[in-house]
Amino acid sequence: MANPTLKLRKRRRMRLIATAVVVLVAALVALLLRLGPALPTAERSSLWIDTVQRGDMLREVRATGTLVPRTSRWLAAATAAQVEQILVWPGAAVQPDTVLMKLSDPEVQDSLRNAQAQVAAAQAQVAAKRAELQSQLLDQRSAEAQAQADYASAKVKADADAKAVARHLIPEVRYEQEQIALAQLKNRMQIEQQRVHAFGASMQAQLDAVKAQLAQQQSNLQLRQRQADALEVKAGIAGVLQEVAVQEGAQVAAGANLARVARTDVLIARLQVPEVQAKDVLMGMPVSVDTHNGVIAGKVERIDPAVRNGSVQVDVALADKLPAGARPDLSVDGRIRIAELHDVLSVGRPALAAADSDLSLFRLDPDGGIATRVPVRLGATSVDRVQVLRGLKAGDKVILSDTSQWDKYDRIRVE
Fold first, then answer.
1. Which helix (H) or strand (E) holds 68?
2. Architecture of the domain delimited by 42-68+266-414
3. Residue 413's beta-bridge partner residues?
4. What DSSP string runs through 163-189?
5. Over its length of 415 residues, how does the chain's per-residue pLDDT go in tens digits?
6. Cα(393)–Cα(411) distance, rounded to whole angstroms?
7. Is the distance from CB of 411 to CB of 42 less than 8 angstroms?
8. Which of 52, 50, 61, 54 is nearest to 342 (CA)?
9. Where are any strands of DSSP class E within 224-283?
10. Where are the domains of the chain?
11. Which of 81, 165, 189, 367 is positioned for an S-S bond with 151, CB 3.0–4.6 A?
């Protein structure tokens, strides 16, 4: 028969166990209610964490671009022509008189020959006109000399008759008639002198007219000669042939670009600065240009007044020697120093950070295991840093990575 005392003890033990379980469950529920929902976890290795620092901060604008020659020129076709032969290809070093390609145009050659013939005809016309005028001038001078001789002869006779009249050897009427004839001869001599002088001026004008026609034909010949010479396309400057824009056998129009030659010993960096940041860029600002094979110092020397495709073109003069391998069209990165801020709080630039804006960042607790969201006011921004106006202090560690996936949490766990 079972012992009643033993059964009673078992019941008491079961009640105690049940009570303990209930108390334990209640305690766990209360603890969970106090802790709230579970914190999300972020892997430390996937986060960008930076420390707030106090000190100097450089304001910089970052822009990409290319190296371009300071001096370059496009060679264009002087007339419509056909590309007969390309003699030099891109990459070759050239001198000003290096022939890059040969063009052909029968009309240019015909025009040159016609211009040469017209110049020869104009020269012959000038020579013939000069001979004709010289002959006419001699005739005029001959008539002048005859008039002078007639007047001199009549003057001698009139002087002799004046003495005879005084002695009453000849009639006075005859003497008077001689004086009238002498005056007429004098007038004739003066008229012939005036005719010679006037013809000299007219002679020069007639010569100038035919010479002007000759000059016009010579100018046309020079034009045709330049067009003919331009069929041999020369580099024009010492440098490197950068581009050939045509192919052999192609027909090109007058003014069409044929080739580009550039001096490669003097290069500049041409940066494309975003239009929203270009307002801060000024002439003479220092620039660091990264050629991916070294960093070169420079300064802003030109700012394009127009905006193209959302960016402003900025030319940078390079002060240092270019590294090996630097060549035109090489991609570069530039940092334009806008200003230097002294004794400010700064931190790495968070994702989507803008100047003079408010945002929230996760700040790590001292033990580094929990990050708490805090409001932060930003000031000036640079390429990779931002000024902190309030919300953080020196030594704080904050998460700068994109934390949009935890927007609904104020705290996260970092492991």
1. strand 53-69
2. Beta Barrel (2.40)
3. 41, 370
4. HHHHTT-S-HHHHHHHHHHHHHHHHHH
5. 445 666 667 777 777 777 777 777 777 766 655 544 568 888 888 889 999 999 999 888 899 999 988 888 899 998 899 999 999 999 899 999 999 999 998 888 888 899 999 989 989 988 888 888 888 777 778 777 887 887 787 777 777 767 776 777 777 777 777 778 778 888 888 887 888 787 777 788 888 888 898 899 999 999 988 888 889 999 988 888 988 999 999 999 999 999 999 887 788 999 999 988 888 899 999 999 999 888 999 999 999 999 999 999 999 999 888 888 788 888 999 999 988 889 999 999 887 788 889 999 999 998 888 989 999 999 988 888 899 999 999 999 999 988 888 888 888 888 8
6. 19
7. no
8. 54
9. 232-234, 239-244, 251-252, 257-262, 267-274
10. 42-68+266-414, 72-105+231-262, 107-229
11. 189
- 226 and 211 in contact (C-beta within 8 Å)? no
CATH number of this structure's domain 72-105+231-262, picked from the four choices 3.30.950.10, 2.30.30.40, 2.40.50.100, 3.30.1330.60:
2.40.50.100
Coil, strand or helix at 300: strand
- What residue type is 45 in one-letter code? S
Contact 24, 299 (CB under 8 A): no
Q: Which two tokens stand for residue 198?
A: 């006037």
Report the relative pairing of strands 41-42 and 411-414 from DSSP bridges: parallel
b/e 114-134 (16+ beta carbons within 10 angstroms → b): ebeebbeebeeebeebeeebe
CA angle 321–324–330, rounded 5-degree value: 90
* Class of residue 256 by CB neighbours under 10 A (exposed 0-12, middle 13-18, buried 19+): middle
